[in-house]
Amino acid sequence: MMKMSKILCLIMAAVTALAGFAACTPSGGSENGTQGGEQNGDSDGLDVQEIIEAYKGTYNVTMWVSELDGIVALTQQQIDAFEAKYPGIVINAAIEGVTEADTASKIVADVATAPDIYCFAQDQLARLVQAAALAAPPEVVANGVRAANDAGSVKAASVGDTLYAYPMTGDNGYYMYYDTSIISEEDAESLERIIAACEANNVKLRFALENAWYTASFFFATGCHSDWTMDARGNFVGVDDDFNSEQGLIAMKGMRKLAQSSCYDSNAEIFTDAGVVITGIWNANAAAKHFGENLGATDLPSFEVDGKSYHLGSFTGNKLMGVKPQRDEKKAAVMALLAQYLTGKECQMQRYEKFQWGPSNVSAQASESVQSNASLAALAKQNAYGKPQGQIHGSWWDIAKVLGAQAKAADSDADLRAALNTYQATIDALFSEGRGQKSVGRVFESGDDFPAA
């Protein structure tokens, strides 16, 4: 116990030196510290030099980062800067580029051989917690992470009140790029006018409605929700979902209007023949290349059903960095310190400057260059209508993604109702009796009308 207390104190001292957060007391507890510089130590009298002496050595570290060109090289540069900040602490890093979409599947298959540090999209957090593949930061580190990043990213990295990961970005959301030569700023506010302009100019409106992450935008627009409940161990135990409702039918009608138009295309990862693409910051360069001087970027439009307007919603999300639990307590401390450094303001700004990744760090978000970025400005505008992506049962993505295709194929409102009934029945089947709560929506019989709002 004394050894662990000392290790935690060293971590706390490092955090105090970096950011002036809580410091470790001689008894192993914590107290609020004042803003500190690199020479300031904690209440044990430890300064950065003492921490360096305690951690001195070479650490073999395996890492998975984004597979995008240049990320591996930048990460190595950032590790070099970490070593310069802490001379004597040598990080012998083996860095591999792996798409964040595959991270959890690869890690939970064999946690023992998983990398020490890895990056992933927030929707994978629950699976990684369940697999005991994440070392929760010591509370003083967690407090520093909470203070440095926006509330949405902190929620994305947490299960309940426990922070399990380190926010890296705050840009995992979507908005609209469009051709200003055919769509005015005013027309960009209306889905109907956008469709008309794209059809008239024989260009595509690319919106991935057969991907649940985007399909949800129509349901969020009408006020629907799908909120999942987990226990403290990361197990899903229930869901409050009202997609199968009067408001859900309105969402399906809105999707049908778009999906059945001649300009609609569900592939939003290419820009060929596009007048509008619903996508995110990862396609900023492609959008600039395709639209050129006619590039417009803004929030999603509104659609109309039965004379009422509904502004399209969206998921808001983050990319996170995780640390695998370590047997060696000293290495565990260094991994926590390194992960905090790699997700701090300086490193987030470097990723923004090179790759336009939007920061989750609130100080970085306030910088002039971030504030003036057109894509991030569009995302911020859309986020006013966004819903932070919490932890969602992995099966939901396949269950919900068919709604877009079903809206496209529907010949009548009865077809839309049938699609929603099937959706709810499949959701309910995830929770057998005694294992969890079922969704709150009710199944509608053939020909049944929705209840009055």
Chain-wise SSE layout:
Blueprint: H1 2-19, E1 23-24, E2 30-31, H2 48-55, E3 57-65, H3 71-85, E4 89-97, H4 103-109, E5 117-121, H5 125-130, H6 139-148, H7 151-156, E6 158-159, E7 162-163, E8 166-167, E9 175-179, H8 191-200, E10 204-206, H9 212-221, E11 226-230, E12 236-241, H10 246-259, E13 264-265, E14 274-279, H11 284-291, E15 295-298, E16 302-305, E17 308-311, E18 314-316, E19 319-323, H12 329-342, H13 345-355, H14 362-365, H15 368-371, H16 374-383, E20 386-388, H17 396-409, H18 413-429
Parallel strand pairs: 3-4, 3-5, 10-13, 10-14, 18-20
Antiparallel strand pairs: 1-2, 5-19, 6-7, 8-19, 9-14, 9-15, 11-12, 16-17
Helix pairs in contact: 1-12, 9-10, 9-17, 10-17, 10-18, 17-18
Describe this entry's structure for a reader.
By secondary structure, the protein is of the alpha/beta class. It is built from 18 helices and 20 strands. The chain starts with a helix and ends in a 24-residue tail after the last helix. The chain is 41% helix and 18% strand. The longest helix has 18 residues, at 2-19. The protein has a domain at 175-316 and 382-429: D-Maltodextrin-Binding Protein, domain 2. Strand 11 (226-230) and strand 12 (236-241) form a beta hairpin. It has helices at residues 2-19, 48-55, 71-85, 103-109, 125-130, 139-148, 151-156, 191-200, 212-221, 246-259, 284-291, 329-342, 345-355, 362-365, 368-371, 374-383, 396-409, 413-429; strands spanning 23-24, 30-31, 57-65, 89-97, 117-121, 158-159, 162-163, 166-167, 175-179, 204-206, 226-230, 236-241, 264-265, 274-279, 295-298, 302-305, 308-311, 314-316, 319-323, 386-388. Helix 1 (2-19) runs parallel beside helix 12 and helix 10 (246-259) packs across helix 17 (396-409).
